Amino acid sequence: MKKIGILFGQENTFPQAFVDRVNQKAGGSFAAEFVSINQVEQAVPTDYAVIIDRISQDVPFYRAYLKNAALTGTAVINNPFWWSADEKFFNNALAVQLGVPVPRTLLLPSKERPADTSHNSFRNLEWTNWDEAFAKIGFPAFMKPHSGGGWKNVYKLDNPHEFFRAYDETGQLVMLLQEAVEFTDYFRCYCIGGKDVLIMPYEPRNEPHLRYATEMKTTGQAGKKLLATMKDYVLKLNQGLGYDFNTVEFAVRDGIPLAIDFGNPAPDADVNSVGQQNFEWVVEAAANLAISRAKAHKAGRDNLTWGTFVRNSAGGAVAPSKKAASKKDDEAKPKAKKKDKE
Fold it and tell me: β-strands 48-53, 75-77: how paired?
């Protein structure tokens, strides 16, 4: 029997609900459980056809375990190789290429040099012109790490003085400087399996346990258009990035939704914060996804999801070599001799 596992940390409500729902829906075809890890040996498969990953972003040992599991055929949700490579600045750059509006954003060098580097390590880096940077982004602005999440090391800044005071605190973190969006509406959207989307009103200025306790204010034709636009953007972003389980946040300014944060591959799914209705939706969608991936599982094969960016890049790199190989094969074939003139 194929097993479906969930790997998690301090959260309590979602993992148990997920296991119970899968076992209820699978009808004995699959068994869901909390992942159990004993000895991890290179290139040795796990017992799991599918693993939902909720914690490896904080535990490097788990990330290495999941990469080994994926290499040997486990469908890991989300793809641990892409999750390791991804970060928020790239997300924004890809969003621009996909046609999804995002705030103006700059990447900043770390305030302190990384360990084991010196002045010579940065001979290719020109000193940042802060006046130009402030003119491009404006104030108020946000400064936050280019990688990571959870509102850690996030600063709201109203002037250059506040910027420099905050920047001095960031140490070796690589930061983003991003325009603050004065929004009329804000939404957080689950995306499961690259196709199922739940749009939730969200108020980031509230205390964490009250952020989902808001009403849907979008009404009429304009409201329907806004919801349809956000759903389209959510699908574009998650299919481009290749995330099976993610959330996207939008700040709506002048009727236009700007994607604020969309690299959340282990998003909050606790019933005490997201609320019962949203919790029920995500448990059901995640269970359906896991069962679907278990049914499609091919032992020993690559069962990961890869986004269109990676697939297109790999395809572009492979195509010329295939063409070259085909040309070499043609040249290697014996050529037909011309018939002697009679």
Answer: parallel
DSSP structure string for 185-236: EEEEEEEETTTEEEEEE--TTS-GGGTT-------HHHHHHHHHHHHHHHHH
Which tokens is 65 given?
């375990």
Peptide bond into 78 cis (omega under 30): yes
**CA 162, 165, 168, 170 torsion: positive or negative?**
negative
What is the tens place of the pLDDT at every residue in 279-334? Answer: 999 999 999 999 999 999 999 999 999 999 999 999 854 344 344 444 444 544 55
The string of pLDDT tens digits covering residues 29-51 is 999 999 999 999 999 999 999 99
**pTM of the full structure:** 0.90
| Tokens 């904080």 belong to residue | 58
Q: Dihedral, CA atoms, 317, 43, 307, 255, nearest 10 degrees?
A: -140
Residues 6+ apart with CB under 8 A from 327: none
- CATH superfamily of this structure's domain 104-179: ATP-grasp fold, A domain (3.30.1490.20)
Span(s) in the chain for CATH 3.30.470.20: 87-102+182-264
